[in-house]
Design brief:
The protein is of the alpha/beta class. It is built from 10 helices and 6 strands.
Amino acid sequence: MNNRKIALFVEGQTEYIFVREFLLKWYGYESSLLGYDCYTLYASKLESVNRAFGSKESENYYLIIRVNNDARVLSQILKQSEGLVGRGYSLVVGLRDMYCQQYRNHAKHHAIDENLNQKFKKAVQEEIDKSPVAANISFHFAIMEVEAWMLGLRGKSGEADPETTFFHPCDQLRTERQSEGKNYDKSESDVESVCSDFSKATYEWLLTSTKCQSFKDFIAAIV
């Protein structure tokens, strides 16, 4: 059995939970197919969040690191990727939201700007290209937030593509949840509640839709 090892650096709690729940459902909670360990970065120290599944001998093993800062996703990848590749990780993946204070400062009228999206992506790729293991690094922005992917998976936005429609998808998800008598304040329990409604079939449906291209690109990289 071939063993594939991937390191995932994600921005924060929402991305971490989304990725973890996706992997569990995608691989059918089968420990022979999936293994992962989860860590969070405090200052410069990695601490286990005591959520693990399978083992490093599973067919697909993921080291998931929650960075807790959008800008540090890239800096941590650049710092650790060479060592990870040396330890047998075939791919080092980054995931962060496009929406951030820096984006808000540059976006006119607080609207999605595709040219600005491309500028952010280009700046990141230029830094990655300087790495001796650049070929083993795959960096992804959730457009505009991972909540856009959740909106797409919930399927309540009609024909609209959440990642090209909502500047701040978190607000839209909160509005939808409130209309259902539920909350969404990005707490662990709220994010897990949203993700609990998704199945492998739900993910497959979005992957074959015309929506959320950044979701498709990210999933193609990690599975």
